[in-house]
Design goal:
This is Monooxygenase. GO terms for molecular function: monooxygenase activity. Keywords: Monooxygenase, Oxidoreductase. The chain is an alpha+beta fold. It has a single domain (8-93), classed as Phenol Hydroxylase P2 Protein, CATH 3.90.56. 26% of the residues lie in helices and 41% in strands. It has helices spanning 18-30, 55-62, 71-74; strands at residues 8-14, 35-39, 42-48, 50-54, 75-79, 81-85, 89-93. A hairpin with a 3-residue loop joins strand 6 (81-85) and strand 7. Helix 1 (18-30) packs across helix 2 (55-62). The longest helix is centred in the first third of the chain and has 13 residues, at 18-30. The protein starts with 7 loop residues before the first strand and ends with a strand.
Length: 96
């Protein structure tokens, strides 16, 4: 649920490969409040408050092992602060 004053976080990803499309699908699945805008070759994903990328979901959709550092190959930019970035999860949110 979005409340007044909730800041939006997001990522812009290249839609250049099947792997990236599966990562986008995983983000949609794990962030049901996300809004997605399609541009030629680029996807903008915005989420109120907190965006999560879970390794387990990405691996399920890719059908192979995926390491969270591979996310850097897909993103163009992000907004928000990286609150967690480990082997299982990437979390973007604002610190204040």
């Amino acid at each position: 649920m979005t409340t007044a004053g909730t800041r939006t976080v997001g990522v812009d990803l290249q839609e250049s490969s099947e792997d990236n499309r599966r990562i986008i699908e995983a983000i949609e699945r794990d962030n049901p409040d996300c809004r997605i805008k399609h541009f030629p070759g680029l996807i903008k994903i915005q989420v109120p408050g907190r965006l999560v990328v879970r390794r387990e979901t990405v691996e399920e959709l890719l059908g192979r092992e995926w390491e969270t550092h591979e996310f850097q190959m897909a993103i163009v930019t992000y907004y928000g602060h990286i609150q967690e970035y480990d082997d299982d999860e990437i979390v973007l949110a604002w610190d204040h």
